[in-house]
Structure formats: C-alpha cells, structure tokens
Amino acid sequence: MGCHVADAIRVSAPATSANLGPGFDVLALGLDLWNDVVVTKRPGPLAVTVTGEGAGEIPEDGSNLVCRALASGLGVDELTDVSIECHNRIPLGRGLGASAAATLSGLVAANALAILRWAPTDLVARAGAIEGHADNAAACVWGGIVAVGPEARTTMFPVPEDLLFVVAIPEQRVSTEVARSALPTAAPYADVSASMANAIGLAVALERGDLEDLSDLLVDRLHEPYRAPLVPGVEALRSLVGEGGCLGATISGSGPSMLLWCERSQAATVAKRAEQAMADAGVAGSATVLRVAPGGVRCRWLDGTDTRLAKAVG
Fold first, then answer.
1. Do 33 and 55 fall within a single domain?
2. Domain for residue 2, yes or no?
3. Which domain holds residue 240?
4. pTM of the predicted model, to two decimals?
5. Are 210 and 188 within one domain?
6. Which DSSP helix (H) or strand (E) runs through 275?
7. Strand intervals (E) in the chain
8. What confidence tens digit (pLDDT) does each residue in 64-108 have?
9. What pLDDT, in 10s, does the model give residues 217-239?
10. Are the CB atoms for 138 and 124 separated by under 8 Å?
11. Quick one: 213 and 87 in the same domain?
12. Judging by DSSP bridges, how do beta strands 163-170 and 47-52 pair with one another?
C-alpha cells in the first residue's frame, strides 16, 4: 500500500447535487455537508464500521462502496491489513451524491496511501467510470459549481455571493436505477435545444452573478418531466418559487430531494416554508439550508498534516 510517515488518513467528501435543472449529466455543485472516512493501516483482516447515515444498512465488509473503490484504486481484489471507519452525514438514496462521496473517499485514500499521484481529472474519470456518470464526481472533487465534459474536463463557475440553497429531503428514497429507468430512450430536438439554451443561459447568469432570471433558466425538458412523479411534494415545493426569496427549484440528481435556489437573506424562511409545504402535501421530510461547498474532497494524514486534494496527488 505504499508508505507514509502516518499510518492513518481521514478523507472528507462533500454531498453533491447534479443536473441543476437543464444541465443533465453535465452540471453539478458541491454542498457543505460532508462524510468522513478514516483508513488505518494495521496487520490483520479488513475491518469496517459505519456510523451515522446508513448505519446498520450499509455493509461492513469488502462490499462496502468505499472498500470497493479503495481496492480498485490499489489494484487488489481483496483488502487486508486495513481498517475503515465511515462517518456518514449524507442521506442515502436522496439524490445528494452519497455514492459519489463514498467512491471518491476510497479513491482518494488509495491515491494518498499508495502515493499514486493521480491528478484531480484522473479521480473524476475513475469515479465517473465506477458511477456511470461524472457530474457528481466532478462536483465532489472540485466543490463549487461545475460543468463536466468528455475525458472528465471540468469547468468551474463562480458562486454568486447572494446565493444559498435549501435542500428539501423527503424520507422516501429513490434509487438512481429507478430514476434512470423513468427516462425515455430518445428526446425530441425541440426539448434538447430548449434545455441546452437554458443550461448555457444558466452558466452565463452564474458568471455574471445575475439571479433575476433563474426561475426560467432552471427549467428542464430532458429529465425532470419524467422524474417529477417520483418526487414527493414536487409541485408544492415548486409553488414556492417566485415568492419570499425562492429563486428556483430543481430536482437534486435523480431525486427525490429538491434543491431550492434562494436569496441568502431569505434562505431560513424558505426552509421553513418548504417544510410546511411538504407537511401540507402529506410528505414526511425536512429542509436544510446549505451553502455551496467551497472546496472538494480533502484528506488529512492523522499525524496532524491537513491537506487538500493537491497534497494527496503530489
């Protein structure tokens, strides 16, 4: 597994929200909600523990996604001589990138422990290959708001100072596989061009810090119309847009969480209104104010050396 002066590493990976309305499989952002994974080298069989979200549900053996990604990165079939502690805060099956966070935690740990010197683009590409799409992976690696293209090329957009997000999270889950199966196998040219125009307009608006037209620019015709029936309370949450500082609403990744784009000064009020809207619609869940993650996945050698990804990749 290579060597380092420390025997343990902590990897922190943020939640992510993909698509951002019209940017299907291209646009995403990191959210300031983090999972932590501690990987410790020691003699003996693999040991895995999970606390927080998914405790008692996520496997505590080599089939754990963190373990699979770590083994893949190290080029081994089976992990030994290591213990892995997963401290999870990102809800599972809610469209908030829990699987991307787990995958990148394993890959970044492999990158650092074996001194592989992968660049961030390499990590996005490897995680995208495991995930089947690279949007969450790019946002997890870089943080901020991103667009990812072929060969994991990633473009970052500035985050307008007055922009915050409310994440409305229902208790109900939706698997990525189910949400993908709801999509048609082909889309009309008119829907593709409309969504492309809005995605480009959204990128320009973010670059300029112009939030006035977000409600129109966040409209999608490629995936949201087909996934909306899988999102509890979707219409109640969309009805908040245009009032009280709620600038727009998008399905977070494959759902069922909703991302409400808000004016910073009104975000707490929007969160309360979102929870009430969900309750009125008979939907159990919660709403949380989150800022965009200012950076992406990071690691700390547990000898006290606090590093960002660049240190891990050398």
1. yes
2. no
3. 163-290
4. 0.92
5. yes
6. helix 267-280
7. 8-18, 27-45, 47-52, 80-88, 145-148, 154-157, 163-170, 246-251, 258-263, 285-290, 298-301, 305-308
8. 999 999 999 999 999 999 999 999 999 999 999 999 999 999 999
9. 999 999 999 999 999 999 999 99
10. yes
11. no
12. unpaired
